[in-house]
Amino acid sequence: MFDLLFLVFLFPLLGFLILAFGRGRIPENLAAVIGVGSIGLSALTTALIGFQFLSHPPEGGAYTQLLWNWIDVGQFHPDFALRLDGLSLTMMGVITGVGFFIHLFASWYMRGDDGYGRFFSYMNLFVASMLFLVLGDNLLFLYFGWEGVGLCSYLLIGFWYKDPANGAAARKAFVVTRVGDVFMALGLFLLFNKVGTLNIQEAMNIAPQLFQPGSVFITAIALLLLGGAMGKSAQIPLQTWLPDAMAGPTPVSALIHAATMVTAGVYLIARTHTLFQLAPFAQEMVGLTGAVTLLVAGFTALVQTDIKRVLAYSTMSQIGYMFLALGAGAWSAAIHHLMTHAFFKALLFLCAGSVIHAVSDEQDMRNMGMVKKHWIVMKEC
Fold first, then answer.
1. Which positions ≥6 away from 72 have C-beta within 8 Å?
2. Stretch (H or E) spanning 201
3. Which end of the chain, N or C, is less packed with Cβ atoms under 10 Å?
C-alpha cells in the first residue's frame, strides 16, 4: 500500500496538465469532474495509506519511496524521493481532505465564470505543489514545492486579473513572500556548506555532532529558515501580503490562505526542529514572532469591516499561536492546532463565500443585515 504514495501528488498533477492543455475546449461540467475528481482520488489514496500506516506502521516509523535520482553533481546528489511519517501523513491528510471539500464547494461557487477551467487547473497545481512540499525527503525538494505554492498563490490571488487591484495584490504577495524565500535559500546554502547534505533526516542526525548548542553557524541557519517561514506564514514583519490576498475568489482564500499554504512555515520549523533546539536564540525568536503577530493581528481584526479581511487577520493570529507553541518547544501541540485550524478556518471562509453570494457580492459586514431574508429569496429563485 505504501508503494501508492506517489499517486497522492500524481493525481492533482495530471488534473492540472489536462485542464491546462485543454483550456477553452473543456466544458464546465467536465472541468469540475477533472478538478474535483483528481483531488478526491488523492484524498482516497491518502486515506488508504493512512489506514495502512496506523494499522501496520513501517519499520522505524517512516517509509521512504525513491522515485529517481534528481541531481548528481560532485558531492551534491539529492534524490526525488517521498518520505512518509507521522508529520507528513498529518499534513497530507489536511491538504487532500480539506482540499477536496474546498474544490467541491468551488465547483458551485465558480459556476459561470469565464475562467472556470483555468481556476481548477491552478488549484490542482497548488495541491500538487503543497504535496511536494510536505512529502519531500530533502530540503531541495521541499524548496521546489515551496516555490510552487508561491507561484500558484500569485496566479490565484490575481485570478480576476482584469481588475488592476487584484493584479496589485498578487504582485504584492509574490514580492513579499520572495523576500522570505531568499532568506530560506541562504539558509539552505549555509546548511549544505556545513553539513554536506540536504537530506532532512541525515542533516538532523549530523547537525548535533557538528554544532555546539548556540553556536553562530547553527543560529544563523535557524534564523534564515525562520525568515522563510515568516514570509510564507505571514508573520510580522512579512505579514502585509495576506489581507490583500483576499482579492482572490473565496475558495482560494479558504484553501491557500487559511488551510494549507500559510501553514507551510509551521511545517518547516516542525520538520527541522532539531536545528532550532540547537539554536535556543532562534527558537526564542520563533515564539516572540508568534506572540507579537497574534496580538497585533487580533487587535487589527477588531476594526475591520470586510468579512474576508477579518478572517485573514484571524488566520495571522492563529498562525501566531502555532509559532508561539513551536517557540516553546510544544511541537505536537503546534501541529495539532495546525490541523484543527485548517478545518475550522476553511469552513469559516466557505461560509463567508455563501454569505457574500447571498447579499449580491457585498463584503462589508455593516451591510449584511437580514441575511436570512436574502437566503430565502435565493431559494425561491
1. none
2. helix 200-210
3. C
> What's the confidence (pLDDT) of residue 54?
87
321-338: burial string, b at 16+ Cβ within 10 Å, e else? bbbbbbbbeebeebbebb
Residues of the chain below pLDDT 70: 258-259, 369-381
Q: Could you read off the pLDDT of 129-159 as tens digits, one per residue?
A: 999 899 988 888 889 889 888 888 888 888 8
**Cβ-count burial of 380 within 10 angstroms (0-12 exposed, 13-18 middle, 19+ buried)?**
exposed
C-alpha cell at 295: 496580538
Identity of the residue numbered 296: V
For residues 270 and 86, the answer to whether their CB atoms sit within 8 Å is no
168-171 contacts, C-beta under 8 A, 24 or more apart: 168/244, 169/241, 169/244, 169/245, 169/246, 169/247, 169/248, 170/247, 170/248
CA distance 287 to 275: 15
**Exposed e or buried b per residue across 202-216, where buried means at least 16 C-beta atoms within 10 angstroms of its C-beta:** ebbebbeeebeeeee
Question: Residue 243, preceding bond cis, omega within 30 degrees?
Answer: no
CA dihedral 324, 327, 330, 336 (to 10 degrees): 50
154, 157, 163, 168: CA torsion to nearest 10: -50
Instruction: Tell me if 180 sits within 8 A of 228, measured CB to CB.
Output: yes
